[in-house]
Amino acid sequence: MGYYASFYTRGGGIYKLLLMPFTAQLTIPFFMTITGFTYASSYDRCGRWWSSSNLKRKWKRILIPVIPVLLFELLVCGMPDNPIIWLLSGGYQMPGSYYVILLIQLLFLFPVIKRFAHIYAGTSNSGAHTWWTGFIMVFIFQCAYELVTYVISLDVAIYRLLVFRYIIFIYGGAMIYEYHKVSPDMIPYKGMFKGLPIGLLFITAAGYLGFMPSVLFRYPTWYKSSAPTAFYIVPITAYGICHADQIEELLKCNVVTKKLGQLLGFWGKASYHIYFMQMLWFGLAASSDTNFLGKLIRFGVSLPVSLTAGAVFYLIQKKLEQSFSVQQRRTS
Questions:
Q1: What's the rounded mean pLDDT across residues 211-220?
Q2: Residue 301 neighbours by CB under 8 Å, 6+ apart
Q3: Using 50, 70 and 90 to split pLDDT, how confident is the model at 222?
Q4: CB burial of residue 259 (10 Å; 0-12, 13-18, 19+)
């Protein structure tokens, strides 16, 4: 986070001119919305969320990639003063390290989110517009949560580790899935776009005009994860998922775009590992202070480094898992 905040501050007008408040500053909420969608899909596929096989698979997916990252952090940064707090906070050096802790919480909370989405979205309800009811209810819940954290002056170090600040985005992804599982054409993105002006106005006010009431922002650079931005993020995500097949067909029109589509698909599979590599890179190698041009150059270098290192990390883990699986079958 420190790197991005510094880049944002030093970038000033150029950063805003490139519309980064509507794109780069919203990557985590977009990612959490997709997480809600993929978790909802996984929930339906697994049959029993609390089954030992499903939980084992989820724990392995979350924890195995983070272990070598934390060991590397210990090797480079040394043993922390309080190892328990360090472990529970996802590491103290790397930006974005809270994501693992959020996923662990989501394992226990998601059945409630999925049930709520099932009631107020998809074909399970009888009203054509009841999905708005569920969305607004979750929106009010998150606003109430933000108000409570403000009233009790919840420490930012704790606030950043609680999944509740992303509930509206996770629910939005689960809600989209409830329609998508019937048919992508059923996703009511046109209706969702009616709320888009709310999100656009909020991001414009917060990202360009300095509108940052403390009740909504536990930290100034976190306006992107505030509930009102869901009115911008969820409709755009819904539109993209609804038209995913058309986009895929469009990418197949020639060899270059087809390869690009395959590459994007691979990066999607490796996204969790890419996240860890960019976390290491920005935390250790790309966080030193410099002028804006230096930050811009460093950012240009960081993107291919993170993508390449994350892809290699993903392939190594996949290869090791395949080898381990073959070895188990031989010994059984």
A1: 67
A2: 286
A3: low
A4: exposed
